[in-house]
Amino acid sequence: MVSCGVNHSSIVTSSGQLFTMGSNKCGKLGLNDINIVETREPNLVLGIQGQVIQASCGENHTLAITQNGDVFAFGEGLCCGVGSLGPITNPVRIAHHDRFISSAAGSEHSLILDSFGRVYGFGSN
User: Fold this and answer.
1) 62 pairs with which residues across the strands?
2) For 14-48, how does the pLDDT look when each residue is reduced to its tens digit (9 = 90+)?
């Protein structure tokens, strides 16, 4: 599975690993290093426990959902749902529900979907 943001992309492999590439503005590549400006090759995102089943790229943030329903976010804090305006450079678990199945990352907001059809939103209002 592939997701493309404004100037970064994510790749989820069949074995559940997440790779990112492109601009690292606000730490949205999840590489735990704000000094990396951009990458032209896919880099493995560390710090996500469990197999990633889906990822979404927004303008300055990235979301990842794991097989056990954890939702991880990194990049611009406001869009990641962590209540911080600063950059989140490594994956932070922001939600857990064994039924989270999908995410969508907009320019400055995010949505996550559970298997009951309920949608949860956060980010810029």
Assistant:
1) 57, 74
2) 999 999 999 999 999 999 999 999 999 999 999 99
